Amino acid sequence: MASCVTSGCGAKFASANALKRQCHHVINALGPQTPPEIFMYRGNAYRDLQQPYLALADYNTANRVIKTSGQHEVACREALKGLPTRLTANYPAADTHLHLIVDPLFGKGIARRTSAKNPDMGRGIFATADLKQDDIVLQTSTPWLQYPLREGLCSNCSKKLPPRVFGCSNETCHEEYCSRDCRSHALTLYHGKVCGNEGFQGIELDLFSQMSNATSPARRNVAAGYLLTLRVLAASLLNRTVPTAIAEVRSLTGKLVFDPNDVAGEMLDLYDRLARFCGFVTSISFEEFIGVYARIRSNSFQMNGSLAWHVPRSMFNHSCDPNCVADHTGVFRASQNIKAGDELTISYYPHLNPLPSEARRIELQSRDFTCLCPRCIAGF
User: Is 0.90 topped by the overall pTM?
Assistant: First the structure.
């Protein structure tokens, strides 16, 4: 983000931040009754904060109700030209629920904390006592949400579908399950609010087609990330809350390296389509939407043919040469003796580990991730 060192610019930024927060409060309080002018005001605040890609979403929302000259949108498009083509957005996490959803799964002699050697890595898992090979590090647990990345898998748990498939009770819905339990679980977890929404499901099928037909790892990973984002949004709509109010979402940090033109193009178009079909502009802002996607890019796992949101595993940092691996039951164990004070690492993408250094770098780069594990630093 461009920086400004003058006191006048600092005051302008502070005023814009205050306006943005005030607009947030008004929109949260009034919901669907929010006057469109409030979105115009928040858009103006985003522009002053040098975030025209966020401003465009609010101007679009306002324009659905009132007719404007279009000068605000033109100004945003011009401002986009002056921004760097590579920006970074960081989204914070809260530890309020980790003692409930993460800590009970750890083995003995293990704790989470921020790395003293590399604070930029955020939270990590460290040994508080010497661990022996095969000691349990993390008990098995199921992901909060997951999205199957190929045909023939259960829409809820991503297991291979049996000969007898349990379809959704809505005959026009595309979801299929491996059991009645999975079908019931999906309805209460994420599917209940969007099952009959043909617009939402049309977007979902379109993204799945884009992912399946992608010609590059980067495009495939973007589409997969969007699909899991849709599932998180569906869960939040079912719970009638914003995504970051859900414990599994607020527990994870997010980092997104992005081209603002892409955000103002493809991503904004996806948000606008979803908002139109689901009517969530007053509950889920474009900024919130990007925050969910950023957390997926930073924390999701490819496991059992799916892209998974798995909070306990996300507490560990990635390494291409991890000292902890999962056994056939999903329990993570130490793969070597580990000294007290050492960080415990796992591989987010085990299928990449056999690849040479450059091939891994390209694959990880398509996920906006630069690995700094000893193996990657050494180049092997």
Answer: yes
